[in-house]
Structure formats: structure tokens, C-alpha cells
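C-alpha cells in:
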């Protein structure tokens, strides 16, 4: 009898968790999607294919990766990935934020005076983007980086600035683990609150530029670039018909 009760409780918990995400979940009032331009007047774009290891990790061929260069030598690196509902299970966008993948590759997060989050406007639509500074391996230069994650058409934000807890010379897994746990927890709580299953379409966009002293100017340049590079499409959920009473 005890074993039956335990199995019943387990079944109820598992079924309830599944139902929370899949049985009549609330439809977000607005869904967003990004598209990116590979041609911007006054800038030259050079596509950069991702290596085999990264391609296997990303598990999608719908990638946009490269560098835009201005005549004066300024350059902006860009990345966008899109995962359909069919292959979204294979890729957690949590694992591709610079807080994790860049740090795992030896970059160091640098405290800055700039805000952790900024907003960009696209035709009247304002969306929040994360904003961080990272130092390249070997202390070559600092990179001001901006990114945004969409899950099921809704912005998935992050809380708290990255705090380095591992030595840059430590193993890749040791550098990635604390931030991965924090971000995974943030995304889990966000999905739980909004009843948003992690099997829908996902998008991740990131763009960055070299930071040479004046972070305000660099951030303004990035904001202006992002609004030229990206376009945002919105889809509004159909209105729920009002109930009629006799």
C-alpha cells in the first residue's frame, strides 16, 4: 500500500508539472521575432562560419555570424541563432550567452559603469538587452557586448551581473559552471512564472564592439548599430471572445 501511495504521488507530481506548461498555458499578448540584415549602407559585412565543435553544440543551421566593418576601422561582431520548436530541445540558449560561452573560452568579465540592461527601439517597439564588458584572453582588449534571448516569442531576461568566481587559468568547466547554474535558475523561474515550455521557438542575438575608454560613446554606437542591423516583427494574440450570458 505504501509503495502504491508513493507511485501515485509521483504520478500526480509529474502529471501536474506537465499540465502546468502544456494545458491551456496563457498566450503572451505579443510575440516578438528578430530578423537580421547582411547589408547595411556604409558598412562592409564579412560572414564567418562557426567551427565544427560550435556547430554541433548549437544544433541548428539557421545561424548568422560575422563582422561589420566601417571605413574608419571600427568593427562590430554579430551573431544570431534561431531554433524551431522541432529542434529547440537540442539547444538551451542559456548555454550560448557570453556570460558562459565567452568565459568558457577564456574571456574575463570586467565591471563597468554602464548599465547591465539597455533598451533598443524598433519601429515603436522597445525591447530590453543585456549589456556586459569582457576582456579578451591575454588582456588584448575589452569588448562591450549586448545580447537578447527570445523564448516562445517573449524576452527572457537575466538578473544580476556576472561575478567571476574561478581563476581564468582554471578549466573551462570550472569557469562556466557558476554562471550556468545562475542563468539556468533564472530561466527556470521565468518559465515557471509564465507557464512557458522550453520546447518552442528560440532566438538569440548578440553584437559587440571594441571598448576604448569611452563606454558611453561605444554604447551609443552599439545601440545605433543594433537598430540598423535588426528588425523586429510582432504578432499579437487574438482577443479572447467575451462570454455571453442569457
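Residues out:
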Amino acid at each position: 500500500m505504501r509503495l502504491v501511495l508513493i507511485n501515485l504521488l509521483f504520478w500526480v507530481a509529474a502529471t501536474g508539472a506537465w499540465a502546468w506548461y502544456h494545458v491551456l498555458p496563457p498566450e503572451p499578448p505579443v510575440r516578438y521575432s528578430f530578423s537580421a540584415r547582411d547589408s547595411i549602407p556604409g558598412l562592409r559585412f564579412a560572414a564567418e562560419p562557426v567551427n565544427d565543435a560550435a556547430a554541433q553544440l548549437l544544433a541548428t543551421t539557421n545561424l548568422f555570424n560575422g563582422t561589420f566593418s566601417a571605413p574608419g576601422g571600427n568593427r562590430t561582431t554579430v551573431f544570431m541563432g534561431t531554433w524551431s520548436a522541432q529542434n529547440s530541445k537540442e539547444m538551451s540558449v542559456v548555454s550560448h550567452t557570453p556570460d558562459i560561452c565567452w568565459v568558457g573560452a577564456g574571456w574575463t568579465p570586467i565591471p563597468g559603469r554602464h548599465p547591465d540592461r539597455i533598451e533598443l527601439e524598433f519601429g515603436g517597439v522597445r525591447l530590453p538587452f543585456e549589456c556586459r564588458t569582457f576582456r579578451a584572453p591575454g588582456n588584448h582588449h575589452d569588448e562591450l557586448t549586448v545580447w537578447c534571448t527570445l523564448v516562445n516569442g517573449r524576452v527572457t531576461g537575466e538578473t544580476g551581473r556576472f561575478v567571476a568566481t574561478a581563476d581564468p587559468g582554471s578549466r573551462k568547466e570550472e569557469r562556466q559552471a557558476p554562471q550556468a547554474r545562475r542563468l539556468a535558475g533564472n530561466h527556470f523561474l521565468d518559465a515557471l512564472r509564465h507557464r512557458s515550455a522550453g520546447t518552442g521557438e528560440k532566438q538569440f542575438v548578440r553584437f559587440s564592439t571594441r571598448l576604448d575608454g569611452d563606454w558611453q560613446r561605444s554604447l551609443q554606437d552599439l545601440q545605433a548599430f543594433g537598430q540598423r542591423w535588426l528588425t523586429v516583427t510582432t504578432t499579437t494574440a487574438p482577443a479572447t471572445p467575451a462570454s455571453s450570458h442569457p
